[in-house]
Amino acid sequence: MTATPETLLENIDEAPQQNDETTLGNSWLLGFDTETTGTSSQDAIVSASLVLRNPASGYEGDSISEWVINPHRPMNPAAGAVNGFTDEYLEAHGSEPQDALTQIAEAVRQAQAKNIPLLAYNAPFDVRMLRTDMEHWNLEPLPKALLTVDPLVIDRAVSKRSGKRNLAMTTAYYGVPPHGDFHDATADTVAAVDLIKPMTVLYPQVGALRLAELMTWQRQAYTSWRNSFNDWLASKGRRVIRDTWL
pTM of the prediction? Predict the structure, then answer.
């Protein structure tokens, strides 16, 4: 299951070419997650994972690549308390950002060429961190448009449940057992990818989404959620949010 970056690229190359009519329920996916020095625009990736998922074989057939990266900037203590990374560990064991980020970006580009969506829970955060880091190190940018799946956006649109919607709570709701501890990039990536099968079973309309309509559907779903959430914020006298999805 664990693959070198070179093997991951080979496995992506061997995956079938998907088209606009491929449905989400039948789609290969490239899961992505990061751990970072913090959550601001000045922070950087310290750990990342890519998980190539064949829908026919599930978790047992995953091809997984992992990176630990020396960000060359200090960890925010609050972030370090969550993800367990220290400045000393990253300096001793982290890859150089230019090397790791180039490998990650190449896998994403190759998957996109196959029409294999990038999947990330709360995708704008991880995609933004990757783009920002690549810009910081003067690397070739990713395409402006990335075919992306965000299980958080999908869950908000189809599930009327109450309570928190962090990854741990959402996987528990859908009956997805964790493979490792949360706030580990690989465990989080696998958990996010694992969500798609139960979501498409419980909500057939999600599984039937064609890749051609996936981005528009998620943007509309996010806007609908944001408008409803802003109504609630305004009723409490709190500042509304103006963020957009990808």
Answer: 0.96
